[in-house]
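Need tokens for this chain, all 147 residues.
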Amino acid sequence: MRRAFIELQEVERTLHDSRLPGEAVADRYLEWLAQQVRENGGAIFMADEDGIFRGFIAGWIVEDDHLIETPDSNRCAFISDLCVLKEARGRGIAQLLLAAAERHLVRHSVTRLRIGALAGNAAARAAYVKYGFSPYEIVFEKRVDSR
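Here are the structure tokens for all 147 residues:
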């Protein structure tokens, strides 16, 4: 799982300059991820083919208190990470992982499943749309001179 996280982080580093090197943050991030899963009704699922690790997905329940949002929007399931190793992509593994996470998370009486992707990650966005996701919010960023 550590290798998969590092691979994902390195791909994202090529897409946006906000991402730190995977090796530098992997251990702390995976500890944080496990804690979120434990504390928020979540799960981590791993995919393998013939006993060989191919990827993972992690998600949990989010409970917010946004005054302008409906109750079912304030309590939703969130997929934080989905990674399929490069050599295993294109075989439907992401779709199987999404289905496993969804089956687990809907047991918590949520009606919304959310996932994020970097704007430049066309492959991830395409996989999510293929699974039935549609855009919910888009975050814009502008670099500014702080002088």
